[in-house]
Amino acid sequence: MKALALIAPHKMEVREIAAPAPLPNQVLLRVGAVGLCGTDFHIFEGHANYRRDAAGRLIPLEDEPLILGHEFCGIIEEVGSAVKDVAAGDWVVVDQGWNCLSHQKADLCEYCATGDSHQCANYAEHGITGPQGALAEFVAVPAINTVRIESELPLQQAALTEPLGCIAHSMDVVQKTPTRYQFNGETAAERPIKHVLICGAGPAGLLFTQYIRNVLGFDGLVIVTEPSAKRRKLAEEFGATGIDPTQTDLVEAVNDLTKGERIQLLIESAGVGQLFKQIPNLIRKQATVVMYGHGHHGVDLGVMNNIQFIEPTLIAPTGASGGFDSDGRPSTYRQSLGLIASGKINVSKIITHHYQSLADVPAGFAQDHFGADYIKGVAVFS
Q1: Which tens digit of pLDDT belongs to each residue from 342-374?
Q2: What is the distance between the terminal CA atoms of the chain, rounded to a whole angstrom?
Q3: How many domains, the chain?
Q4: Where in the sequence is the domain holding 179, given as residue range(s)?
Q5: Do 138 and 30 fall within a single domain?
Q6: What residues contact residue 178 under an 8 Å CB cut-off, 6+ apart?
Q7: What phi and psi, each to the nearest 5 degrees, are found at residue 57?
Q8: Are 31 and 91 in contact (CB under 8 A)?
Q9: What's the whole-model pTM score?
Q10: Fewest Cβ atoms nearer than 10 Å: which of 72, 159, 193, 334?
């Protein structure tokens, strides 16, 4: 089969590799659509590498090329001998993270047992930590990681179940963490979150905006800081107040909009290290800071000194963690797929670029995502 291999930073090529054979508990998926994620870009650019060998050493791309692609859906081509609850011809989205159920462990590790499956003690992740990603014609995945698509949802939208799952998980962590300011609960009556600042209106920032408005039903102030006029306008359509940080002093603007109260919840979804220099002047003391973006570089760790001084709660959620439904399927993925299918979360406006073949995809990494009109690229093969 054909697959798109990342063989060195900034270098991809389509290669012929052996098609995977599904194990008894797996299915062979013909890939239908794959979202291009910010994590993929960080790996492509050489700013991140999450693969390690048995001794814990990083595995360079030059030693072992990587097939990216962890936001994906497709049609089941073949099922393993032990698979009974999905069948060839089913369209499914996939939880790309292998957990205890994926590995058929008799006992769940402490993380899977407490709804934190993406921190599983036996964790592996398609397209990131080792297992083959979906920028290929086929990929073998644990059947228990699949969630059937029951609607007529276009594949390019279904592929965004994973990134929405990450946002759902992040906000779940925010709500469950005992912090000074809350959306709901006893603390909220006394010290409610009134002002939210989302740094960056990329796919994550736009999904955060919608989730806070449409799922949590938050009617307070949501500010989005974003230099791109296109992204800022879309954030405003989704219910945010947009700020262009290249034209306006962000600290002054936040101070004006909040009447000097500043921010109770700040979500850093841009992966821009320079933002950490401004955080102490943007948030209230003991506010909550969600460190969602990845790929920070170019800033000395000393920027954390002034942040630590005002005692914020720092939350660093990763992946679409969650518990399992009664059939063992990942609950966060099922919930997120339902939110997209129902229209409660609009992902169609976020998708700006489509790629029709593996050979087309490198353009998305090398040039398209630097363009002013780029928000999200999706490869659609079916």
Answers
A1: 999 999 999 999 999 999 999 999 988 888 899
A2: 16
A3: 2
A4: 166-315
A5: yes
A6: 187
A7: -85, 145
A8: no
A9: 0.95
A10: 334
